[in-house]
Protein: Lipoprotein
Organism: Rhizomicrobium electricum
Amino acid sequence: MRFPVFTLAVATVLAGCSGVLPRESQANTASFETYNDLQAAYDKIVPGSTNLTQLAAIGLDPKALPNIEVLSYIEVTNKFMPQYSPITIDRVPKGARECIEAKSRCSALVFRFDRRQSRHNGNVVADLLQFHQDKVKYGWSAEIILLMRDEDVVYKVMSGMPYAEERMENTRPLGPLQDVDGVGNDKSKKKKR
């Protein structure tokens, strides 16, 4: 009589303990927890008056953050006036034009931010034995490009994804036996928001 009660208790605990399911976290940014934090820092940048020292003070220090790309004025020119494009210098935004015209005094700082997490939902036993896995990846990403003339910002642009979510469900009726002969009924669903 004790064995069925013990088994039932263990099964109940495992079924309800979603906290033991795997979680992952990935980030390439130390100073910004949310997209809104990054947006607030970006809004403080004033082309024509913000310099490298002030960038560092708001958390956008190219010497301290990882994975910052520095573009030469030739790459900046190609970005704003691609070869074989009808775009001429007079059609380029004012700050970008000032940077391009400064030639070797012009560069660009490209900051890329990516903060992603994933979690498994559902029944622990079904997940661990691969009968049913429900995984959600969520987070945000952004890119800021700052055109610099010497140490001063002359142009800024930000793009990104304030919230991304991707859900993957995998149902395998035979669980771990599904891969024995390489065939099976593997139903995966991907949803993006």
